[in-house]
UniProtKB/TrEMBL annotation:
Source organism phylogeny: Bacteria, Bacillati, Actinomycetota, Actinomycetes, Pseudonocardiales
Family: Belongs to the small heat shock protein (HSP20) family.
UniProt cross-references to InterPro entries, sorted A to Z: A-crystallin/Hsp20_dom, HSP20-like_chaperone, Small_HSP
SUPFAM superfamilies attached to this UniProt entry: HSP20-like chaperones
Database matches in Pfam families: HSP20
CDD domains from the UniProt entry: ACD_sHsps-like
PANTHER family tied to this protein: HEAT-SHOCK PROTEIN 20 FAMILY MEMBER (PTHR11527)
Span of the signal peptide: none
Annotated ranges, domain SHSP: 26-138
Taxonomic superkingdom: Bacteria
Protein name (record): HSP20 family protein
Length: 146
C-alpha cells in the first residue's frame, strides 16, 4: 500500500478539480508539453515529452505556418476490483502551437514517437539555404558566397 505524506497535495488537487484553476503546486490547464528544439544541419528538430501517451492519440497539424501538436493521455483501463490509491499523472488533452518561419519547409515535416518522446523534423526550405552567386564584370568572373 502506498502512503501519502503530503496532505496539502490532495487539497490542491481537489481545489483544481472543483474550481478548474491552478493552485500553488499544481499545473494550470492545459498542462505544459515540455520540448527541446535545435537545428541539426539542414533541418530543425523538436522533441516533445509525452510519456504514457498512445501514438494513436497524437495529432500534428500545420495551417498557415503554425504547427499544432495535440496529445491525449487516457486513463488506464481497469476492471471492477481496482481501487485507485494515488493519481498524480495528468490525464486529458495537451496541446502546443509553434509558429514556423518562412525559411522552413512545412510541406515535408516528419514525426516519430519512441520511448515517450515525439520527435518532429522540419527541413530548411531550399530558398533559405546558403548558395553561391556568380559575379561578373570587367571581363572577369568571380564567385562569392551569399
Amino acid at each position: 500500500m502506498l502512503m501519502r505524506t503530503d496532505p496539502f497535495r490532495d487539497f490542491d488537487r481537489f481545489a483544481q478539480q472543483v474550481f478548474g484553476a491552478a493552485t500553488p503546486g499544481t499545473w494550470s490547464k492545459p498542462a505544459p508539453m515540455p520540448m527541446d528544439a535545435y537545428r541539426a544541419g539542414d533541418q530543425f528538430v523538436i522533441c516533445f515529452d509525452l510519456p504514457g501517451v498512445d501514438p494513436g492519440a497524437i495529432e500534428l497539424d500545420v495551417e498557415r505556418n503554425v504547427l499544432t501538436v495535440k496529445a491525449e493521455r487516457r486513463p488506464l483501463p481497469t476492471d471492477g476490483d481496482v481501487q485507485l490509491q494515488v493519481s498524480e499523472r495528468r490525464l486529458g488533452v495537451f496541446s502546443r502551437q509553434l509558429f514556423l518561419g518562412d525559411t522552413l519547409d512545412a510541406d515535408h515535416i516528419t514525426a516519430d514517437y519512441d520511448a515517450g518522446v515525439l520527435t518532429v523534423r522540419i527541413p530548411v526550405a531550399e530558398k533559405a539555404k546558403p548558395r553561391r552567386i556568380e559575379v561578373t564584370g570587367s571581363g572577369e568572373q568571380r564567385e562569392i558566397k551569399a
